[in-house]
Structure prediction request, 840 residues.
Amino acid sequence: MKRRRLHRLFGLFGWRIGLVVLAALGFFGIFAEWLAADVPVFLEYKGESYVLPALTQRVPFREGARSDEIAAALGPGDRAVWPLLRWGPTTETTNRMAGASGDHPLGTDAFGRDVLARILYATRSSLALGAVIAVTSVLLGFVLGCFSGALGGVFQGLIERFVEIVSVFPAVIAIALVRALEQRPSLTSLLIVVTAIQGASVARLTHVLVIRNLAEEFAVSAKAMGASPLRIAFRHVTPHLVAPLAVAAVFAMASAVLIETSLTFLDLGVPPKVATWGEMLGEVRWGAGPWIIFPPLVALTFTIGALYAMADALRRAFAT
Amino acid sequence: MLRHALRRLLWIVPILIGVTLASFAVLSYLPDPADDPALLGTLTADQLASLRRARFLDLPRFFNTRPLDVAGRVEQALLRIGSGDARAEQAGAELVRLGGAALPHLLPRLDALPPASRARVAIALAPVAERMGIAADQALDPQRTVPFWNRFWTDRAPDFRPANARRAVRRFAQHASATREKDVFELDTYALEQIMLHIDELSSPSSSSAPEWGAPGVRLGAIERLIGAAARVTGREDKLAHGATEREAQLAVHRWRDWWLVHQADFKANQGTSRFLAMLTETQYARWAERALLAGFGSGTESAGVLDRMQERAPLTLLLMASALMFAYLAAIALAMVAAIRASPRVEWGILGASLTALATPTACLAVWAMRAAGPALGLAILVLTLSIIAAPLTHTRTLLAEILRSDYIRTALSLGYGPARIVLGHALRGALLPVLALAGTEMPLALGTTFVVEKAFGIAGLGEETVRAVQTHDVAWLVGLAFITALTVTVTSIAADFAVAAADPRLTVAALRHRRMST
Prediction:
């Protein structure tokens, strides 16, 4: 039964195309250092060899050295394997707001940073943030929803209140409040607030699903055999929640990416210096041309489109 | 139904308390000035103490087992003055600060004190006598000061009663004369509570139109006099210059009110039930909530109060958000209806594609691009906002309509020979309309974030701009105020939406409403 559904899922066009797009973007994000960095992927310098110095932070040059400086410093015996693009995401040059060229395939921004390099690193941070928020919020919502649905009574009241209180706070204002209280912006606080907000809506969904499933025959017979409410919820009802929660997770990831974009555009999101799509969209503020929004826009639209296509496919495959 | 309605309304109270508790909890993470190494070096201990006091950090969080009123402070000061060391000097200064309000708790006990501390207390009170404008030379003379204060109390004890203070302040506010001024000054800080009450009354909007205050200059003059008196007895510099404008007067009143909120416990005596109430009110949470409710969330870092600033900026944001929400829902309902009437796969796909595109395009991109292409225009901003919130109502209406079109009564209507347009418009729409509108209420928190983005892209001076500024300047008062107001609005809207839905469909009464809380 389950296998047939998975088979059906992979037969759906939306799932396949979504998976391919997301995998491609994920590939760019994961291998960003291999594709674009100031330092070589592999370096042999003065008899010592360095593997991926961008990751290990073990570079035999001064901090923030540019690729041309490093290339010039290499002696005859040294070897370097360079990434495809010899620019890091934060390397500033004097060549500001340049158009596309062989050196900068997508041009540079208002600080002379290479747009292609930035979009690669932004893909990593945006996708990672979205994925982490999706997983944590679905876990949080699942546990809360199961408890409130299965136990009822005081637990339900408490969890209902929590959900209600969280959901009346607009996400922007909650984040703004936390940002104003912090000495310096941190990623953790952003994660916590967005997770709480997304988790509240997942908790609602889980609660309703649990209640609905508890009325089904399998749950009633488990109860007749003496299973405790929590056992029924986590053991017998949970398999029925996998599909809707998977959909919820995909949606949560999509909206987390969008929320992050909006927040960073408002200067409330990730700390400065971290390249994300929202941050790149906001670069128009510093006088860059409107073309600067196209790379992040394309990446965002592809991501969100892929996620929605996958959610739709999941829903269809598991529809009864 | 009515019973449930009342219950639902009553639930607002715990939710709002929860919201205030949540905001308060967030606020308590603001670093204590005493822990901030940057401040420790630059400020004196007194400045630090007053900074902490302004945020009520000298009080316990939720329950005060020993609330300090003026009597308690006098007690403490007397204990310290008895010790005779450096702390005695501080205690003397404290007595001077407490001033006239402390006298009813201090002078009757003067004779019961040991002779050494009796003299010290009496000498410490000399600045108070000076401030009150009575025989300062006697108060300063170590030989005569104790008999002087004893005599003072036998003569004047009847004056130090609330009724007399009220009368003196009222007469002084109505008309300025040397004797009336003297009456108030001789009560010193004992009159402060009444002064603040009268300032409140005079600055309230109802009294600005009251006939007894006639021309506006008379009322402003009274406020100026009362603030002058308060400044004299407390030693604060904050006075109102002669001939100040209405706006300046308001700001000054605002500052004084905030000061009084923080310091009122020093000048009031708790008697009877208020002694027990003080256990709850003399706490960080209660004081903060009082400031939030009475003083409009304090003034933050700006001179104008949070509520005033909100009044200034909210209309633009609300206009933007409300019109965009309205357009988005109208368009979504219309589009979904067209799709239901035409019911062809091509229209279906078109609408699915449109809503997916709207979902996947970040508002920031759209807004920035529109701004670049056509410049700042309010209409364009509304259009962009409409496009970015249309997706949710569109998909929601579509699924709802599809569900309704499968139901039995629609099939009956079809079999009776009605056309698709008549069925959708006349039968199906009624069932779909209200649930969709109920969604609009819950959409508001999300739409607010989108509105901020559009505001920023178009450079509109609404709530969003002020919020971003508040984050940069750490203006927490503004943010808490905004959070509270929006939470209140969202709660009330969602309850109203519940009732609207229940009213339209009587089947959805008690049971349905009870589950709606979690299921929407």
User: Anything to note?
Assistant: The CA atoms of residues 149 and 210 of chain A lie 6 Å apart.
